[in-house]
């Protein structure tokens, strides 16, 4: 044994270093220690450890440890001395653990004894608590029984109180029902919403008890009051619509006043005011914008949050009768009547007549309404206030368009008459104030004829700002150079010249009548079309017809006839280009020349070359 011990002492150093035990559990002696924990995870397993990754039954710290395999391996690999040393170390460790356990037991003995006493006392206290809980349960049962009796008494009292309250409420309802007609009558005039709420609350009860005569009388009286209130509310609604209509009318008249002021405002030299297209665009846009704003205000009555807006009888009557017919259609018709009134209505004494430019502008406005605006307004109204399928009849759009076109036609006709009368007045004065018997031989075109051409040119520019050019009849190649004869234009002047001598005077009256037989009849006051050449043709016809009638009432001398010849040729040179058909101008001027020749005491015409020279120089 001693030898073994000695041998183990000598071989401990070499055997411990290579044994699995020394490598696995020994921490002394300064040998190599395997990395573990974070370091091992950081550096990763070595090659030897990778080879040992399979289950190892000899790893005393591994999950697959097998004592038999381990002991077999130790006995076969470790020397006896190392085994004996390990046995001695394990004995020392066991004894140290036994000593530590005894020390721990001695140190905590008093605590164990105290804990045992405490547990014993707690068991006694728990038994006392159980007894007290039993007493408390018995008391709670008694209290529950008392509470049940008290609850039953309270329920009985509550039931009787509810019955009493029901009787009192019924009495109050009956009293309120009796007072319903008086309240409705009192609130209908000042607080209609409160009257409606009162009737709504009482209606179901009255209907339920209407088999009783007294309740039936109350119900009938209430219904009569509410029916009267409904009629008054409908009348008031037609009035927030009538007020909007009056507001639109006032706005239109204000805009019209602004247009008249702009037309009449003096213009500084070299500075032009707004043209007719700008004034028309501003007027039309302002009126249409105001109408849209009014429709937006009225549309608040049909909003989704308004309770009565979804009712069929309200939407049918309000949307069609009040808004479409009472507001939109009524305004369009009023606008057409107002515009037409400038042409139809007699001017008051001392009141200024409407300027011609205003007549022209209103005619264009009504024509635009007929072409597009009325259709747009009605479509917008039907979209915002859709009519019911079975609702009242509506005014068709073509009927309104026809009214607008009639107003435009009347205004344009009146414009032609006003402008024609203005030019005709100048011609009338120029004829009536001149001595046609004692006048001298003509050397120039009279200034009034130049003024007529200037005014016609200005009218052409004015009308061209608002109306299209129109269609002209094809002109002859010599329209501006055609000879103006005091005889019939359908015959060559040279044909009658040889037979014309003072001793054999020509019957110019006969020639005039023959000319009328073969010439086309000219309708002076026929309706004009909506274009520039038609308007100018109407004005020229009125002017020349006036000149013709004035010449027929005068007696002329030779030079007076020649002056008419010069003036007529000058007008022919410039007026034919404004007319839709040059034959209209030529025909009227021929009649003027024939009338002058018929009323002349010495009908000797001027040579045509001299007439052309005077007109070109003028």
From TrEMBL:
Function text: Involved in retrograde transport from early and late endosomes to the late Golgi. The GARP complex is required for the maintenance of protein retrieval from endosomes to the TGN, acid hydrolase sorting, lysosome function, endosomal cholesterol traffic and autophagy. Acts as component of the EARP complex that is involved in endocytic recycling.
Organism: Promerops cafer
Keyword Transport: yes
InterPro entries reported for this sequence: Vps51
Keywords attached to this entry: Endosome, Golgi apparatus, Lipid transport, Protein transport, Transport
Family note: Belongs to the VPS51 family.
Name of the protein in its database record: Vacuolar protein sorting-associated protein 51 homolog
Keyword Cell inner membrane in annotation: no
Top-level division of the source organism's lineage: Eukaryota
Cellular location(s): Golgi apparatus, trans-Golgi network; Recycling endosome
Upper taxonomic lineage: Eukaryota, Metazoa, Chordata, Craniata, Vertebrata
Subunit architecture: Component of the Golgi-associated retrograde protein (GARP) complex. Component of the endosome-associated retrograde protein (EARP) complex.
Any one Gene Ontology cellular component term annotated for this protein: GARP complex
A GO biological-process term: protein transport
Region (Disordered): 1-43
């Amino acid at each position: 044994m001693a030898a073994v011990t000695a041998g183990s002492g000598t071989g401990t150093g070499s055997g411990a270093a290579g044994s699995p035990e020394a490598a696995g559990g020994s921490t002394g002696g300064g040998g190599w220690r395997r990395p573990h924990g974070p370091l091992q995870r950081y550096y990763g397993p070595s090659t030897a450890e990778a080879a040992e990754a399979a289950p190892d039954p000899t790893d005393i710290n591994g999950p697959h440890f097998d004592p038999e395999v381990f002991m077999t391996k130790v006995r076969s690999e470790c020397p006896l001395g190392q085994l004996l040393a390990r046995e001695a170390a394990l004995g020392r460790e066991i004894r140290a653990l036994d000593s530590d356990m005894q020390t721990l037991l001695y140190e905590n003995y008093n605590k164990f004894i105290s804990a045992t006493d405490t547990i014993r006392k707690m068991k006694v206290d728990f038994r006392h608590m159980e007894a007290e809980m039993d007493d408390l349960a018995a008391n709670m049962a008694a209290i529950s029984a008392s509470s049940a009796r008290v609850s039953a008494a309270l329920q009985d009292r509550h039931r009787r109180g509810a019955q009493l309250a029901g009787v009192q409420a019924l009495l109050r309802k009956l009293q309120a029902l009796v007072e319903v007609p008086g309240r409705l009558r009192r609130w209908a005039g000042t607080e209609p919403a409160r009257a409606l709420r009162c009737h709504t609350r009482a209606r179901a009860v009255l209907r339920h008890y209407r088999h009783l005569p007294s309740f039936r009388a109350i119900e009938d009286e209430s219904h009569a009051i509410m029916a009267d209130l409904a009629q008054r509310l409908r009348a008031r609604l037609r009035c927030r619509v009538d007020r909007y209509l009056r507001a639109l009318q006032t706005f239109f008249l204000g805009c019209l006043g602004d247009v008249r002021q702009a037309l009449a405002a003096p213009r500084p030299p070299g500075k032009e005011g707004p043209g007719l297209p700008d004034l028309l665009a501003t007027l039309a846009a302002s009126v249409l914008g105001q109408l849209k704003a009014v429709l937006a205000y009225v549309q608040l009555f049909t909003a989704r949050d308004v309770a009565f807006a979804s009712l069929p009888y309200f939407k049918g009557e309000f949307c069609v009768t009040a808004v479409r017919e009472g507001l939109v259609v009524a305004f369009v018709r009023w606008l057409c009547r107002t515009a037409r009134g400038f042409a139809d209505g007699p001017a008051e004494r001392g009141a200024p007549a409407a300027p011609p430019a205003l007549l022209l502008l209103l005619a264009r406005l009504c024509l635009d309404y007929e072409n597009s605006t009325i259709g747009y307004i009605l479509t917008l109204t039907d979209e915002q206030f859709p009519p019911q399928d079975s609702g009242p009849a509506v005014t068709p759009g073509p009927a309104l368009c026809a009214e607008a076109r009639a107003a435009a036609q009347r205004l344009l006709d009146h414009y032609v008459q006003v402008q024609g009368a203005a030019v005709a007045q100048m011609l009338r004065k120029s004829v009536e104030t001149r001595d046609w018997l004692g006048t001298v031989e003509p050397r120039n075109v009279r200034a009034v004829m130049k003024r007529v051409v200037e005014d016609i040119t200005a009218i052409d520019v004015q009308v061209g700002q608002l109306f299209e050019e129109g269609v002209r009849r094809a002109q002859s190649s010599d329209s501006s150079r055609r000879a103006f004869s005091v005889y019939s234009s359908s015959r060559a002047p040279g044909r009658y010249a040889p037979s014309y001598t003072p001793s054999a005077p020509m019957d110019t009256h006969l020639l005039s009548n023959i000319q009328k037989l073969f010439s086309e009849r000219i309708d002076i006051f026929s309706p004009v079309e909506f274009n520039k050449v038609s308007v100018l043709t109407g004005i020229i016809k009125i002017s020349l017809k006036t000149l013709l009638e004035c010449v027929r009432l005068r007696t002329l001398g030779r030079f007076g006839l020649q002056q008419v010849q010069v003036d007529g040729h000058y007008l022919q040179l410039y007026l034919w280009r404004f007319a839709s058909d040059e034959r209209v101008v030529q025909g009227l001027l021929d009649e003027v020349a024939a009338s002058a020749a018929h009323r002349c005491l010495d009908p000797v015409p001027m040579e045509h070359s001299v007439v052309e020279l005077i007109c070109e120089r003028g």
